[in-house]
Each structure stands twice: as C-alpha cells, then as structure tokens.
Design brief:
CATH superfamily of the largest domain in chain B: DsrEFH-like
CATH topology of the largest domain in chain B: Hypothetical Protein Ychn, Chain: A
Shape of chain B: elongated
Order of helices and strands of chain A: HHEEEHEHEEEHHHEHEHHEHEHEE
Distance between the termini of chain A: 47 Å
Low-confidence stretches of chain B: 77-89
CATH class of the largest domain in chain A: Alpha Beta
Largest interface: A-B, 40 and 32 residues
Mean pLDDT of chain B: 88
Helix content of chain B: 25-40%
Low-confidence stretches of chain A: 1-5
CATH architecture of the largest domain in chain B: 3-Layer(aba) Sandwich
Mean pLDDT of chain A: 91
Strand content of chain B: 15-25%
CATH superfamily of the largest domain in chain A: PurM-like C-terminal domain
Number of strands of chain B: 9
Distance between the termini of chain B: 49 Å
Largest sheet of chain B: 5 strands, parallel
Number of strands of chain A: 13
Number of helices of chain B: 7
Shape of chain A: globular
Structural class of chain A: alpha+beta
Structural class of chain B: alpha/beta
CATH class of the largest domain in chain B: Alpha Beta
Number of domains of chain B: 2
Number of domains of chain A: 2
Oligomer: heterodimer
Radius of gyration of chain B: 24 Å
Radius of gyration of chain A: 19 Å
Order of helices and strands of chain B: EHEHEEHEHEHEHEHE
CATH architecture of the largest domain in chain A: Alpha-Beta Complex
Strand order of the largest sheet of chain A: 8-11-7-12-9-13-10
Chain lengths: 340, 200
C-alpha cells in the first residue's frame, strides 16, 4: 500500500472550520431541557457532562481523524492522546474507551493492528479500559476513540468560566499542525517532526492532575481551532485577553516553515473565523500563523488567578512540560483578543 | 508567464509549487496558479503580500480560481543573509538583571522578559554574550521558562554567563542549566569592552 493513501492531510487540520460548523449547529433542535446536563454543546465545551448523582458526573467525548503521520503505530497513539485530552480538559478521569475505525478492507490489516496497538497503549497509560469499538470499511483511514470519564460535578473545569484578572497558561508548544504539513510537503526536518510527535503523543493527564491541586477557574485543550480559536471560546463574549506572543511556547522550526509559507488550509480557515475578534500589534507574520495553527493533541489552556499562576507554571515545568504564562484575561474591551 | 496547475492539490502544495515557479523566473515576471478552493487563494495571497508581489485573483467558475502574481525588479534579489555572533556583530552584549522586564506588575514583567529573550533569538544579528545577574540569574536555572530560548542562543555562538554570587544567594548553584558562571570583574570588563549594551 502506498504511503500517500495512508496520510493525506490529517489530524486536527482535517476538522471542519468553526465558521461552517456553527451555522449547522445553530439550526439543530435543542431537545428538552435537562438540568442534569451540566455541559452540552451550547457552550462549545470540550465534552458533554451529565450529572448522575450529587457527587458524580459522566463526561463523554469522541474524536477521530485521518492520519497526520506516516507510521500507523504513532498515528494510533496521537489519535488516542487527542481523544483522551477532552476528558482531561474537563478535569475528569478516564474510565472506558471505545475504538472508532474507518479502514479500507483492501489495505494490509497489519497496519490497522499497529494503529489500534498505539491507541490501546495510550488508553492504558490514561488508566482507562478499552472496552470495544466499531469499524467501517471506508476508502480512507480514520481512527479515534469515544471516551467516558468521571468527575465530581463540583470539580468540573469548564472552558468559559475564566475571570477578569486571571492569568493564562499554555502547557504545550504550538506548531504541530504546520510541522506535519511541512513534513507532507517533504520540507520538515526529522528533528522537527520528532519534536511534534513527542508533543502529540504526550497525554494531558499529567497537566490535568497538577491543575487539580490549584484553584483553576477555566480550562480547555488547544486543538483544531488553534490557540486563537480556543481562547475565543474561552472568553465567550464576556471578557477580553492580552497575549504576549513572545512568551507563547512555540516549536521553533514551525516559525521557519511559516516563513517559507508552508501554510495549512485549516489555519487559514481559523484565521477567517477568528481574525475579526483579534488585534495584532505588529507581530511577525510567522508568529501570527502559529497562533492560528491547528493543533492535534495540543496542550491545556488554563485560566487561573494571578496569585497562584507562577507556582502552577513552575510545577508544570518541573514535571517536564514546556508550560508558560502567555497572557492575562481582562474585562471586555473593544476587541476580544489583543496580541502584542 | 509561468502557469501552474494546482487543481486538486491540498495546502501547502499550491504555495510550494508557486514558490518554485517564482524561483524559476530568475527575475521579474508573472506566475499564474490555478487552484480549486478559496482557502488556497487566501494562502497564496498571504504569501504574495508578505513577499511584496503584486497579486490578483479571480474566480473562473465553481471550484476553479486563478491567482496571478507579478514579481517586480525590487523583489527578485532575495539573498538571505543570516548573521550570527561569529560573523561581525559589533560586539554587543545583553544584560539581564532581573526576572522581570520593567517595574509595575510582576506577572506582566515576567511575561515581557520571556518575550524579550525570545525576540532576542529572532534577531538577525545576535549579541556576543548575555550576562545574567541578581533576579536574572534564575532564568538560566532549572524551572525557568526561558531555558530553550537561552539554549538556542548558546547553540548559535552566544556566550551565556551567570553571576556566581547571585546563584549562591538564591541557592541555585546546582540548578544552573546553561552557560558558565562569572564574577564581578568579568561582568565589569565585558560591559566596558562591549560596543553597546542591550538591557530590557
């Protein structure tokens, strides 16, 4: 089987644009109101949360996409880490997971075996049980997980509950979208790709567990809509934010590839959707692109009171994450996001 | 005029093909690229704007767009010159005397300092050395959010020196991760010999 069939342009770069999506979602019937549905798609959060008792809520999410790397095993790990991430973004623990598989019957089944092995290993690392799955014969490869998690309703970390004066922390570097794209064009270095893969296969479990020891006000994971898109969701029309672009953790080669115009379609879609909310104060073109870069299995974006922020960032760093304070939340201003 | 058919190609291939065609021009000229989606048009337009090429696009029919770039005299010679510390800086040095840039809000100050060091790595001409002292000494030590940027500087020939007295004061002597340790005599000598000093 040729490599090209396997990897056409996957990961979160394959996500439908937020612009198109919201048009469809707005028209869907809301269904009957249920007070136990604490988080639904109204708030565009990372996962749904349903309260089943006073001290237990079920967190449900699913994520799947086409391969973004050539190696099936690596792809399996990345797809799983990405799907599991939504559970961690909610502050929850992983319980069970089910495989979602689309695979051409004519392709070598060993490839599928490697993909699912990578996925299973990440579920095990997450402390979850891989309990089954569903597979479809399809013209292209797609893989992901449906994941169930559990959390106390009082400890849910929503994405839109940040407060004025909060400090924003990002736990992983940006740039994996553009590096994978450059790699497909044959223009990425092996070391850049290695750095991207190592970041994408890292579970947000460890960041999430550290966060629980602090009074985090809001949390989300940065994925397909890029840092700007997910920050926009976090601010939810109530607040504004100031981002210091030079303090945003970035994979250095990604800046070089952006300067070489190895641009993704998804980043441009993200730009089209969120640019109206943003004021860029003379920052370099490459950095702008990175801020719109769709992340596969990206890091957590954390909103926390200023008094605890430095300690949290330091603890995340001492656990080996490239975590950095990247900006602050302010009261609502003319623009939603200011980047300097 | 060179014509590029990038119909059916996904980003960034249309941009890569167009860039290669512009290289082939070896001078002023025109490149027309055909693509099948508007996002590709926008990405090509971004590149043209960044490079300063004249750009015009039109929709020919559904799923077919034409982007025409005109490369003028001024933009053709683009020999990139990367200066490093070794080849001819005028011997500037940067001095980091605190973990914070400026006074006022320390959360802001810490972000600004990280941003300053990152921006330093993005300069075409790097300083000969960066001196870290007092609160600045923490930036070369374990737990600093600037370690990678400072490593980048070190890898590109910039000498990284941290004040030994300060490391001792903050009990960081065994936490230094990048560069060497320096003392007051060397700090004074380096500063007085430098052509100019960059200080955030």
């Amino acid at each position: 089987m040729s490599d090209i069939v396997f990897c056409k342009g996957g990961g979160c770069t394959a996500k439908l644009g937020a612009g198109v999506l919201s048009k469809v979602l707005e028209k869907l019937p809301k269904g009957e109101y249920d007070e136990n549905l604490i988080v639904g798609y109204d708030s565009r959060d990372d996962a749904s949360v349903y309260k089943i008792s006073e001290d237990t809520a079920i967190v449900q999410t699913l994520d799947f996409f086409p391969p973004m790397v050539e190696d099936p095993y690596t792809f399996g790990m990345i797809a799983a880490a990405n799907a599991l991430s939504d559970i961690y973004a909610m502050g929850a623990d992983v319980l069970t997971a089910l495989n979602i598989v689309c695979f051409p019957e004519s392709m070598d089944m060993n490839i599928l075996g490697r993909i699912m092995q990578g996925g299973a290993e990440k579920v095990t690392e997450a402390g979850g049980i891989l309990a089954g799955g569903h597979s479809i014969n399809d013209s292209d490869v797609k893989y992901g997980l449906s994941v169930n998690g559990i959390v106390s309703p009082k400890k849910i970390l929503a994405n839109n509950t940040g407060r004025e004066g909060d400090v924003l922390i990002l736990t992983k570097k940006l740039g994996v979208g553009i590096i994978c794209t450059a790699s497909r064009a044959g223009e990425a270095s092996q070391s850049a790709l290695d750095e991207a893969i190592s970041s994408m296969t890292t579970l947000n479990k460890y960041a999430s567990e550290i966060c629980r020891r602090y009074n985090v006000n809001a949390c989300t994971d940065v994925t397909g809509f890029g840092l700007m898109g997910h920050l926009h969701e976090m601010l939810s029309g109530r607040l504004s934010a100031h981002i210091i672009s030079g303090s945003v953790p970035v994979m250095r080669p990604a800046l070089g590839y952006a300067d070489e115009f190895l641009l993704t379609a998804a980043a441009q879609r993200n730009r089209n959707f969120t640019e109206q909310y943003i004021e860029f104060n003379n920052i370099p073109f490459a950095m702008e692109e990175i801020l719109f870069d769709p992340q596969t299995s990206g890091g957590l974006l954390i909103s926390i009171g200023a008094d605890e922020s430095e300690r949290l960032a330091e603890e995340l760093r001492s656990a080996g994450m490239p975590a950095s304070i990247i900006g602050e939340i302010t009261r609502k201003d003319k623009k939603e996001i200011y980047v300097s | 005029m060179i014509k590029i058919d990038a119909v059916g190609d996904v980003c960034p291939i249309p941009v890569v093909k167009t860039k290669n065609a512009i290289k082939e021009l070896k001078g002023p000229g025109t490149v027309e690229t055909l693509v099948d989606n508007e996002i590709a048009v926008q990405n090509l337009t971004k590149m043209a704007n960044q490079k300063g090429y004249k750009v015009e696009s039109k929709k020919i029919k559904d799923d077919l767009y034409s982007v025409v770039m005109t490369v003028g005299e001024a933009q053709t010679e683009n020999t990139e010159q990367i200066l490093t510390a070794a080849d001819g800086t005028r011997g500037s040095i940067a001095v980091i005397s605190s973990g914070f840039m400026g006074t006022g809000d320390d959360t802001l100050g810490a972000m600004l300092m990280k941003s300053f060091i990152f921006a330093l790595t993005q300069q075409e001409s790097l300083p000969k050395a960066v001196l870290f002292y007092n609160g600045g000494a923490k930036l070369t030590c374990e737990g600093s959010s600037s370690l990678e940027d400072i490593s980048y500087l070190a890898e590109h020939g910039v000498e990284i020196l941290t004040c030994g007295t300060c490391l001792k004061h903050y009990d960081l002597s065994d936490k230094l991760r990048i560069g060497g340790v320096t003392n007051m005599y060397e700090i004074v000598e380096r500063m007085s010999r430098a052509s100019h000093i960059i200080k955030p």
